[in-house]
Amino acid sequence: FHDLKKILTTDLILDLPDDTLQFKIQSDASVDGIGAVLLQITHDGDRPLAYMSKKLTKTQTNWSTIEQECYAIVQAIDKWDKYLRGHEFILETDHEPL
To answer: Where does the record place the Reverse transcriptase/retrotransposon-derived protein RNase H-like domain (predicted)?
Structure first.
């Protein structure tokens, strides 16, 4: 209980990017929005660098699931291009067809 209490009351700390470590993007889409997190893989586990989320427009909510999931990926890569350009990175999504 005390560990959970500490986690829930501690400020979220984002790491600074390290060009020597591999980047990872985890993205997802839902009925009315998209989101993603930029991570770096360290010996201590994945560390968050940045988060993004965006509400879908009425037109975008009519897109198929695969289109919404792809849109989340494209938006994340576009947003974090300055970190990802010239680096290999891992992309994770929960959408099986992708």
So the answer is: 1-90
